[in-house]
Design goal:
The chain has 387 residues and is of the alpha/beta class. It contains 14 helices and 13 strands. α7 crosses α8. Pyridoxal-5'-phosphate binds next to α4.
């Protein structure tokens, strides 16, 4: 990014804004910082890797409410506290990928464009990655079910990002159920990266755990292990504007959870006790999340007002990114920086080229709607004029 913009001096900085970094700028909930302060005496203690009881109860309670699960369906055996979801999305590769899968080099399935730790998970475990562009007929989700048998038999791990980043699409219930079925049939770990799940426009994204529970109700799952082969990741970074707290979790299949906790016992950093206490309070509160969502909706309105009808604009169904088709993403980024001091990310940086060398991200730029309206509106106006 630095080299892309090197040597270019913005001509006008009246609407300058960094719209390249997905770091929420809304307010940190004050009750969270109060708890961090009040609990400071416990910084002298080593925290439990599996989380305190209060943390476990808060997260399992939230997962049960959010996914419409029956009471008791999520407990400590289903949960791993994480220092944000990124580290878990990376290290899941070390747990879920063996040296071989059915006698061959294991394979990881990833959407394309994708969140970079998915590639790290595969590489660190010696697996190969198959990148899959979104399918319009599947709300932009990757059609892993279309893969041939021999490829699926080699698959050790598959990622689904829902809402998708950067496109902002939502996976349907049927699609998710099909992916769960595939994971079980071919015995691979299905990962749901749900870190944008609480930022949506009119319809809450369906969670993978919800779908697993539904499969059991329909007699299609294993009632002894409803989340078999499935784990989801979520965090307070986007939901609660707490990216710097580094607090998230993995939840799902107890076998995968057990292995992950075992690994973390040797090499993981547990969440400090004040962080666990503050996180528990954040998961127990929805008022600040609703207020946060309302702010994003107003910004979706603004984006639609200035960019609607241009660059294949779609109002994000979930998440806070705009994925604009501008022709040549790198050129557009340089142009926005030169004309207005606005930083965005070329789509090509978020995707991998296919076998023919074609990168699906090339024509796009990604803009994040993380700043408040006062900063955002002039920048959006400038983008509409400049590109
Ligand atoms: C798609 C996606 N997944 C996961 C994360 C990880 O967030 P965190 O580690 O803050 O929970 C991010 C952060 O930007 C993201 O964009």
């Amino acid at each position: 990014m630095r080299s892309l913009l090197a040597g270019i001096t913005p001509e006008d900085t009246s609407a300058a804004l960094n719209m390249s970094l997905g770091e929420p700028q809304h307010q940190v909930p004050s009750f969270v910082t109060d708890i961090l302060h009040d609990q400071r005496a416990s910084y002298n203690k080593y925290p439990p890797v599996q989380g305190t009881e209060a943390w476990q109860q808060a997260v399992s309670g939230w997962l049960i409410r959010r996914n419409g699960l029956s009471a008791g369906m999520v407990g400590s055996e289903n949960l791993v506290p994480l220092n944000g979801s990124r580290e878990g999305l990376f290290s899941i590769g070390l747990v879920a990928i063996g040296r071989q899968k059915n006698g061959q080099i294991p394979l990881v399935l990833s959407p394309n464009p994708f969140y970079q730790p998915y590639a790290g998970a595969a590489q660190s475990a010696g697996a190969e990655t198959l990148y899959f562009s979104g399918d319009a007929a599947l709300d932009g989700m990757p059609d892993y079910a279309s893969l041939p048998e021999d490829v699926l038999r080699r698959t050790a791990l598959a990622f689904i990002c829902n809402p998708s980043n950067p496109e902002g699409g939502l996976a349907s219930r049927d699609y998710l159920a099909q992916m769960v079925g595939l994971a079980r049939k071919y015995d691979f770990t299905l990962v749901g990266d749900e870190c944008y799940s609480e930022i949506y426009d009119d319809k809450p994204p369906v969670g993978l755990l919800d779908v697993c529970a539904e499969l059991v109700r329909r007699g299609l799952g294993n009632s002894d292990n409803p989340f078999q082969n499935v784990v989801v990741f979520n965090s307070l970074s986007k939901r609660s504007n707490l990216a710097g707290l580094r607090s998230g979790f993995m939840a799902g299949d107890p076998d995968i959870v057990r292995e992950t906790l075992r690994m973390r016992t040797y090499g993981g950093a547990p969440l400090p006790l004040p962080v666990q206490a503050a996180s528990a309070a954040a998961w127990n509160d929805e008022a600040h999340v609703e207020a946060n969502r309302a702010l994003y909706r107003r910004k979706f309105d603004l984006a639609e007002r200035y960019l609607g009808g241009k660059f294949d604009f779609t109002r994000p169904a979930g998440g806070f990114c705009l994925w604009l088709k501008v022709g040549d993403g790198e050129k557009a980024c340089r142009e926005l920086w030169r004309a207005a001091g606005i930083k965005c990310l070329p789509g090509v940086y978020l995707a991998r080229p296919d076998a023919d060398g074609h990168n699906v991200g090339m024509p796009y730029i990604r803009l994040v709607l993380v700043h408040d309206e006062k900063l955002l509106e002039p920048a959006l106006e400038k983008i509409a004029i400049t590109l």
